[in-house]
Amino acid sequence: MVRIILTTFVSIYAAISALAVDQPNLVVVMTDEHNFRTLGCYRDRLAEDQAFVWGKGVKVDTPHLDALAAEGALLTNFYVSSPVCSPSRAAFLTGLMPHLTGTPTNDRPLHDHMVTFAEVLGKNGYSTAYLGKWHLDGTGKPQWAPERKFGWQDNRYMFNRGHYKKLKDTEDGPRVDAKIGRNGIPGYNLNQADEKSYATDFLMDRSLEFIRKNKDRPFCLMLSIPDPHGPNQVREPYWDKYRSMTFQPPKTMLKNVGEAPAWSGLSGNNYIEDLELNQAQMAAIFGMVECIDDNMGKLSRELKRLNLEENTIVVFTSDHGDLMGEHRRHNKGVPYEASAKAAFLLKYPEQVGAGKVIHSVMTSVDFAPTVLSMMGIGNGLPSGQGSDLSNRFQNKNLNIHGERIAYIRAASLRPAWVAAVTEGYKLVVSNKDEPWLFDLAKDPDELTNFYHDPAYRETRQRMRNALRRQMELAEEPALGIPGLAKWLQPTERD
Q1: Is the distance from CB of 93 to CB of 342 less than 8 angstroms?
Q2: For the domain that residue 361 is a member of, what is the CATH number?
């Protein structure tokens, strides 16, 4: 009898173990404020004037990210739900639009009851870890290992805010290894950071330690690299490599300010008044991107060495873009392509064909339900705005097109603009201006408003109606702003 019970127990244990082995791992690498044109795999898909907006041949090579795209899927139209750090990250983790998470703008904490994809995976037997910038617990800075984990079991190397350059391990846990002032406040200075202590390298090395420790059980790791967000400085040899480059102003920097949309934000700290780029800062951004790419190579080699490559989903993306001079602006916050669109690469050899290109729109809120479905978990999330788009990745077609319309919003509880995005078109509705309709095929620079063009009547109607429907489903506060909502109503001219 004992032998029968023991045999049964062993069989059950073996079955559970086999199931665990079959469960795919998930590794998400998210950079911060990253222009998609800095990746070779995106430049290769653009016309020359779009690929080299800072001058002919002015580029940073990204062979490891290019290999990730070639071996998996690349999304040409991945838009963040709101192009600012905290709200974008909240949407990505929860599948909810930012205003429903407690984080409609920066430095606002997630609601306690929010459920992330990490929590769902943890309940399904996964070991989970988050390393790097979090930016979802309020104003704490750097605030290592926030008390509220939201499903991230190991968050020792999570810090709430900041773009620190040099990190170290101490007896009290990780710390910033650079100080400013007499009070020793953690600082952003390089302080002679090297390949072991520079934040990108340091955090990747700790990520690989987690992977090695958990290689025999299903795991979920999210690495949030604080680069290439400013301050624009990077360890050598990366910075020095690009100092000899001459960065030309993008042609959209030279546009007539009076012809720009009122929502374009041509004022304040992000506005470029003198029509010049800071050469050293541009060189540092390119250097940060190359450092990120080299670390992605380290990740790829380690997954291969551990025989985890086939059964691990690797995702590379960013929380939002960086205009880097386009439209006379730096940074983000507006619906222009270089601000609201981010790179998105996904490799999963067991399910995703190599060289797949998905053109149909996907946004931040779609990530969690999509990846959970691909992992065989089911959604597991409370009802949200995100859609399960896993079939796009799993089907055998290598080029995916589709007339999907999604909506994104400004970073505010009552946003100054909302936008409908689809493959080829973008409709921006604001309380500051009349609507702007962009034809991204005809006008990739986003300089011309086609909203009143009779040839775009049907496109305008379709996108406006889809935008209003989605805003209603998401309980969008912008519908309560009369100056904005009026543009979403059918008109006699339609």
Answers
A1: no
A2: 3.40.720.10
